[in-house]
Amino acid sequence: RKHSPATVYHASATLLAIARQTSQWLYAIVTDFRWWFWQFGTHPGEYWTSQFIAVVRVGGEYAVCVVGELVANMGRAPVSNVASAVGSRMFNAVRVRADAREPELAEKDPKALRDIVARRRAELGPEHARLYWSGCYSDDTITVVLGAQRAALIGRDIVEVNSECQVWLADLAKCPLGTVAAHIGGVFLPNACIGTISVEKRVRALHSCRSMIEGALDPESFESAQGLLGHVVEILALDASLLNGLGRQRRFAFKHHLKKVVLTQCSTDAIAQLERLIATTAAASIFSAITAASTPLPPDHSPAPSVIISSDACTGSHDETTGELVDERG
Fold first, then answer.
1. DSSP code at position 38
2. Residues of the chain with pLDDT under 50
3. 269 alpha carbon, distance to own chain's centre
4. Distances (CA, A) of 169 to 29, 35, 186, 244, 278
5. Per-residue model confidence as pLDDT tens digits over 222-238
6. What is the layout of strands, in order, in the sheet containing 284-285?
7. Disulfide-capable partner of 74 in 15, 37, 157, 217 (CB 3.0 to 4.6 Å)?
8. CA-CA distance, 85 to 91, in Å (whole number)?
9. What are the distances in angstroms from CA 85 to CA 82, 157, 160, 182, 270?
10. Distances in Å between the alpha carbon of 106 and those of 184, 217, 249?
11. pLDDT of residue 163
12. What is the reported pLDDT for 76?
């Protein structure tokens, strides 16, 4: 599975705790595979599942054409997961080099760092004794490393493996090694113990909130906006329960062929609150983000039962616009 912003927070928090005990800095390397989705061809047996209709202008006339996807469509979730897994496996060559070099580097490490690594290896296993973490999200990769020397060496490994495997990665001039990482819509500053979102993503998120409130989105656009807001909520460590019920209302609109998704009053109030939080929350602490991602929802936020046995079991009322049952618990 591809990682999430919470995964980056988890890895950074662990390495940051080690860094603070050994007076070192964390560094991040971000890059991406060029033309990554073009490396995955569609199997002939799947051609019939990957066609769409396009209207093409030919001269002064228009033709309705059937278009087949000969390469992977990055908009499909399974394809994105496959690309993430393959990219992570390719990055394993970099991990192998870093692991092989570690005994030599460890000889120059302070005793406090060697003791931490030895304890983590004994209690958690060799993977948790690494002084770096790397992940691949579709075609975007990130590596968080303890110390400038290890970061420089892993950066060199990435360039060399790239050349040997003849896989195009973005130039490090475009995605430099540094103490700030712009990755999958987030801006991570592990040494400052915070993460935030780019200005562009914040504007898109605020626009999505306002469009939901005004009922301006069709089901497909609504689904895209819902995914964006989920991503922003995770990066800024906001209350994820404010998104409860959106999927149900999108499915209702799709099922009944409604042109727009109209929110219930409960969801409208929740998205309005989320809009204010996105506008006013500058950044999230790495540690609070971990807590927000790992804390289970309280019973009051559990999903409503799908079968209502009697009127006494009803916990809400019917929305006047859609006629759908509104769960008062959100």
1. G
2. 295-330
3. 26
4. 12, 9, 20, 38, 33
5. 999 999 999 999 999 99
6. 181-183, 186-189, 194-197, 284-285
7. 37
8. 10
9. 5, 20, 21, 21, 35
10. 32, 56, 55
11. 77
12. 67
